[in-house]
Design a protein that fits this description.
This is Putative oxidoreductase SadH. It contains ten helices and nine strands. The protein is an alpha/beta fold. The protein has one domain: Rossmann fold (3-Layer(aba) Sandwich). The strands form two sheets. The chain has a seven-stranded parallel β-sheet, with helices on both faces. It has a two-stranded parallel sheet with strand order 5-8. Helix 4 runs parallel beside helix 6 and helix 9 packs across helix 10.
Length: 292
């Protein structure tokens, strides 16, 4: 279901950026950064209270609109696209940041939870790209900046994946696979959209201090406590990830690890894949055994 809760269209049409998962964490930080660049941000999430809180943090005189919807609802995406077209708005950027977490051995994971993770993290992004592709393509020749004080970002999509995609730690099968799929989706879109003047970037943040771990699903209470504790110890802030993600996108990078540790591990995977994967598997399996 989609509800247009607030749309401020008093000023001349700025470029629109659509951000899913905007109710908190990295999605909120990205929304703030894009608002600072002069975009009118469509804030997407399922929680109205969280979206309202994000809207209130946008720097004035930022324009924002709440899009209360589930990213796995294909109809919601089509309705949003139709609304934007009807208002004659120009969409310059889609940010797929909505994500959910499931931790535990695959054999212990409920089928409904596995399906939900893949649908939100991957299928929702596919629906978004499918619905917004015509609007982004129409904006691709646009050369005006989003703000007089900031250079324009490329037209296209920014997909927030995870360093878990290439590392594939045990205990996160659905999350790892869905984020890896998001990377492959990005690579595919660069080929499809490139001739149309659009681009696509996938960022791979390391462990970031957000609500992802607290709101995740777990196969055991002790595992929830252990994973949440590690999440709280993450060295990255949502604001840092947002800033570095937009920098990577502005440079039109295809895949960009975010954070010093994530970057080091990503590079080492190409040179010493066996060593890196062995260490990741050992540490993750120890966590699973201690929490079982």
């Amino acid at each position: 279901m989609v509800r247009n809760l607030r749309a401020d269209t008093a000023n001349p049409m700025p470029l629109v950026a659509i951000v899913t998962g905007a109710g908190g964490g990295i999605g909120r930080a990205l929304s703030q950064s894009l608002a600072e660049r002069g975009y009118r941000v469509v804030l997407g999430d399922r929680c109205e209270a969280s979206l309202t809180a994000t809207l209130q943090t946008l720097p004035p005189p930022a324009l924002g609109e709440l899009w209360l919807a589930d990213v796995v609802d294909e109809t919601a995406w089509q309705t949003l696209a139709e609304q934007l077209i009807a208002r004659g708005e120009t969409v310059g950027l889609l940010v797929n940041c909505a994500g959910v977490l499931l931790a535990g051995r695959l054999a212990d994971s409920p089928a409904s939870e596995l399906r939900r993770v893949v649908e939100v993290n991957l299928l929702g992004a596919m629906f978004g790209c499918r619905a917004m592709a015509p609007l982004l393509a129409a904006a691709a020749p646009t050369t005006r900046p989003a703000s007089p004080s900031a250079p324009p970002l490329p037209i296209g999509v920014l997909n927030v994946a995870s360093i878990f995609a290439p590392l594939a730690p045990p205990g996160f099968a659905a999350y790892n696979a869905s984020k890896a799929g998001l990377v492959t989706l990005t690579q595919t879109l660069r080929g499809e959209w490139g001739p149309l003047g659009m681009t696509a970037t996938a960022v791979l943040p390391g462990i970031t201090r957000t609500g992802l771990f607290k709101t995740g699903s777990y196969t055991a209470d002790r595992l929830a406590e252990a994973v949440t504790s590690r999440g709280d110890q993450g060295t990255l802030s949502a604001e840092f990830v947002a800033r570095e993600s937009l920098r990577a996108y502005a440079l039109r990078r295809e895949i960009a690890p975010i954070g010093r540790r994530a970057g080091l591990r990503y590079r080492l995977l190409h040179w010493l894949p066996g060593v890196v994967r062995s260490r990741v598997r050992r540490d993750a399996n120890r966590l699973l055994e201690e929490s079982s």
